[in-house]
Amino acid sequence: MTTTPTSRLVDLISRYEEELLHDWLQEQRIGAGRGGGLSSEEEIKRESREFLALLRAALSDGGAETLEGASWGSVRDYLSALSRSRARAGFSPSETAMFVFSLKQPLFARLSQELADDLAALPDAIWDVNALLDRLGLLTTEEHQRGREAVIRQQQRDLIELSTPVVKLWEGVLAVPLIGTLDSERTQVVMESLLERIVETNSTMAIIDITGVSTVDTLVAQHLLKTVAAARLMGADCIISGIRPQIAQTIVHLGLTLSEVTTKATMADAIAVALERAGLHISSIGES
Amino acid sequence: MEGERIPILKMGEVLLVTIQVDMHDRLAMRLQDDLTERIVKDRARGVLIDISSLEVVDSFIGRMLANTAAMARVLDAETVVVGMRPAVAITLVELGLSLPDIRTALNVEQGMDLLTADGNGRLGHGSRRL
Hints:
The structure holds two protein chains of two kinds.
Chain A: H1 5-15, H2 17-35, H3 41-62, H4 73-89, H5 93-101, H6 104-114, H7 122-162, E1 167-170, E2 173-180, H8 184-201, E3 205-213, H9 218-234, E4 237-241, H10 245-253, E5 262-263, H11 267-277
Parallel strand pairs in A: 2-3, 3-4, 4-5
Antiparallel strand pairs in A: 1-2
Helix pairs in contact in A: 1-3, 2-3, 2-6, 3-4, 4-7, 5-7, 6-7, 8-9
Chain B: E1 8-11, E2 14-18, H1 25-42, E3 46-50, H2 59-74, E4 78-82, H3 86-94, E5 103-105, H4 108-118
Parallel strand pairs in B: 2-3, 3-4, 4-5
Antiparallel strand pairs in B: 1-2
Helix pairs in contact in B: 1-2
């Protein structure tokens, strides 16, 4: 009976599963000792056991040549899910990769024990295992990074949504306090949420406050005018407020015209105008 | 298809047009014809175009709205477009059609207020001018 390196590995994992698992967990515990250990003991144990079973199944099905084959699909999926969940839980890339790399030591030990009387075959066998685990380790790093990127993208989306609240000031009067930089993506979100709210609340006035907008250039002004034009098409008037002296100067220097829009220096002035147009006025109690 | 028309309702001195089907170009042109004819025939002072059911617009429809308003103005009737959806408004602005000469309102009620406040005030009550 000829034993290929792969079948030997499968055989090895089947026979020494418990021992391998024990050694591997010990290795992981040493690694976790350095990194802080974010997963519980049982969880690591369960994950290790499941991964080892999947690895054995993939090895007996498809061999160790490439990870792209269909037989490795479940291993790849399992590692991807594991890496991503660890990325979200705050593991570092090396801590994540350690999950796979720490399997080397136990496997090498078993292999040298197994091939004690065939020392010529030992380097090749170790090399095969090494190459396989390296590829799997790289996969975890890649997936870890992808997981992190997904987190960043999610946060970006959250930030955009959080930073564009549409506030109802009074019956028929909305306000949008803009903060930060105004790029086309933000403008799109602001425009959409403002227009949706105009319909929802049946508002005829909207105050766009740009106190928190750090710079106004031609592009930003264009974005603002687009928003105003879209609101007007729906039947609501916009007031732009919170124009700082510096920004007023920039607007004039750039040759921008905001003439078709009502502009006010402060939000307070804008509110007064909006209420007046709605047929309301504010007075102190003594006066009435 | 041949006989398809958008109905024009008369309410006092105001003509009410509710667009509830997808506007294709021929239908838009026919509406323009019908509307100008009715403004003259009914001696209307105002035109209210409700586009709250309109989900898709293109530059042609946008221009048609602008032209219709301009034609009505020549015939001494004020046009108010009401109920434009957010997506439609964004599309028109992106197309560069901000329709500066058209008056707009959120819904038929407010549009009617706008028109009757302009006229002789026969129907008007507690109106607001923007």
